[in-house]
């Protein structure tokens, strides 16, 4: 069995793998993801999470990250994830201790406004303040989530880190969010550019620094296409609703069109985000070493479309299969008991309703696992090999002198860093 880089260091073996720069893999990213293995993991984690009423989700998230991180390699050596489920669970409890009182306070104020028969403006202000605070907390949590993920990630025993102020990020993200809302979404490219710069300019790999100079105007070119598509789809949807309400078009005729509209939106969003990722990567440096991102966006978008259709098909087939088994079981019981026709129909309906919930749960688990495994495996195997760092030999020489000890044993003081929001 192949040793990890950390294990080779501890064993006193040469601190390189057989796939270093001299074998032609230096500076290259690669990913080895098995869709079947990923499907099995996702299904197992979904079942265990359901059986434990959601508690196992922290162990599931940790296991999935550890698996995916280890399947991504650079220069022949894998990335490693050092986070623990305990940290995620404690972070969730801390987040819950913050969000639960906030929700209760908002509810009490809403009840008081209703009981006092105050104007609608008071209720509107209360809701606006609540959602602004919530947006700020989510932005704060997002930055600390990125800090947590980076601090628990290493490559050749060199750990990532994220400096900067989460409070500053949350405050400015709140201002950008308000500007985006006021501009009907047109300020979003500048918000996205600032958020990427803020995170990447504070990211580190050992002593090597990341830097990003992406601009909002560069993202705007890509965003206009997505924004225009949303407007067009919105107009089509509004026209369909108008024709439906006037009775000119039957509901059966508009149903497939509405389904296609809502299918196009996530596919278009995936294409937009991948385009932005390419742009941000090309404008990012690691110790002045340029990063290149060249991959086929259409392949990932197609996999997302296939994953969605596959998930829907798996859901329908599973639901129909389980319900068919339930129907056969019910009919068999009727035959054995000799129930009369009217009573038999009622018995079948009641018994089939009992089968509906477990059938729906199982179908959802299988469909989600199938869709995620298809999309994630395609995403990693398409995007990761398309990344490259210029002059990687010099960069690897710099990183070789940064064999710092792991920082993931610092305790739970930063437990709020987790992605539990």
Automatic annotation (TrEMBL):
Name any one Pfam family assigned in the record: DUF898
The name this protein goes by in its record: Uncharacterized membrane protein YjgN (DUF898 family)
Species annotation: Aestuariispira insulae
Q: Which residues cross the membrane?
A: 38-59, 88-109, 121-143, 223-245, 257-280, 301-334, 346-371
Q: Does the keyword rRNA-binding apply?
A: no
Q: Write out the entry's keywords from A to Z.
A: Membrane, Transmembrane, Transmembrane helix
Which InterPro entries does the UniProt entry name for this protein? DUF898
Source taxon at top rank: Bacteria
Does the record carry Membrane as a key word?
A: yes
